[in-house]
Design a protein that fits this description.
By secondary structure, this protein is mainly alpha-helical. It contains four helices and no strands.
């Protein structure tokens, strides 16, 4: 999955919707594997990129923000 993300970053750029989706998906996988710190970093990257590209109210941005919020809650960082 990392190779897919890196390929999308190279060919599409960091803020392309497909790249953001891959970033979000990798973060979710890392969360499931227990690598919470790296997952948090990637979720934040996805959210920042979605806000920049799509705006704060776009459904993809909102969904990525929710993923980050749930992770932060699970980490006890609220």
């Amino acid at each position: 999955m990392r190779e897919c993300l890196e390929g999308r970053q190279r060919t599409l750029g960091d803020t392309h919707l497909d790249t953001l989706a891959s970033t979000n998906n990798l973060a979710g996988l890392l969360q499931a594997l227990g690598n919470l710190d790296e997952a948090e970093q990637l979720f934040r990257t996805a959210v920042d990129g979605a806000m920049e590209t799509l705006g704060n109210e776009h459904p993809y941005t909102v969904g990525m923000q929710r993923n980050l919020e749930l992770l932060v809650q699970d980490m006890g960082k609220e």
